[in-house]
Amino acid sequence: MTMTSSQRQSLGTHYTAHSCTVEVGFRRYTATAAAYLGQIVEAEASAKLDAPVTLTFERLRGADVQGLGRALKSLVESGATYEDALVQVGLG
Questions:
Q1: Which of 24, 32, 51, 61 is the most buried (most CB within 10 A)?
Q2: pTM for the full predicted model
């Protein structure tokens, strides 16, 4: 179900707090559980197929572009070089 802007507005800060929690949870899931399970599946599939198998979760990261942007900005503002910050957030 897609919410209209007026419905989101009527929920106010509760909706905002909830959506931020969901974004953080999704980011943690893709960075930990999905990546870890992907490594296990890669190893098993490579062994069974006797050929290298590679899985990528880059498309999932695209769902959190705002989070990546905030992290990049924060790193640069705290003194990291732009290039180093890109590497830290996984974009470089």
A1: 61
A2: 0.47
Q: Are the CB atoms for 55 and 42 separated by under 8 Å?
A: yes
15-59 pLDDT per residue, tens: 444 555 666 676 677 667 888 888 999 999 999 999 999 988 777
Q: Phi then psi for 46, rounded to 5 degrees?
A: -60, -40
How far is CA 13 from its chain centroid? Answer: 23
List, in order, residues 6 or more apart from 67 with CB less than 8 Å away.
Answer: 23, 24, 27
Residues 15-30 as b/e (b if ≥16 CB within 10 A, e otherwise) read eeeeeeeeeeebbeeb
Residue with tokens 């599946």: 41
Q: Which two tokens stand for residue 43?
A: 């190893």
